[in-house]
Amino acid sequence: MGRTHPPSPRHPHGPHRHGLVGRRQPGREDLATIGDDRAIRLWDIETHQRLALYTGHTGVVHSVLFSPDGNTLATSGNDGTVRLWDTDVFNDLATLTHTACTIAGRSLTEREWRRYVPGGVAYHRICP
Length: 128
Hints:
Strand 4 and strand 5 (50-55) form a beta hairpin. 15% of the residues lie in helices and 38% in strands. By secondary structure, it is mainly beta. The chain has helices at residues 93-104, 110-116; strands at residues 3-5, 16-25, 28-34, 39-44, 50-55, 61-66, 72-77, 82-86.
């Protein structure tokens, strides 16, 4: 699933591993990418917009796979963990709001909002 590249000026710390996997849903095709930055990105293939950024691995992410229904993304990394990500959370603002408030226990900062919430959704305080 991944490809190894020799060190380059862009990746001076050695080989860069990356991978990708796609999913198809009615009216939509997405792509998940992984790399040595320990993050997983979900992209809309048609618009080239980033839909989500998932962070939590403490080591390089080596593999990524969508569940058969496309609603869960499984990743594994050299930190020895397998993580399951809800890919549906960004499709509905009410779900996103509830999930963000539950996880963070507070409203997101504007910086966090820009990093984690898909483009086109204006920042606002979401938790009571």
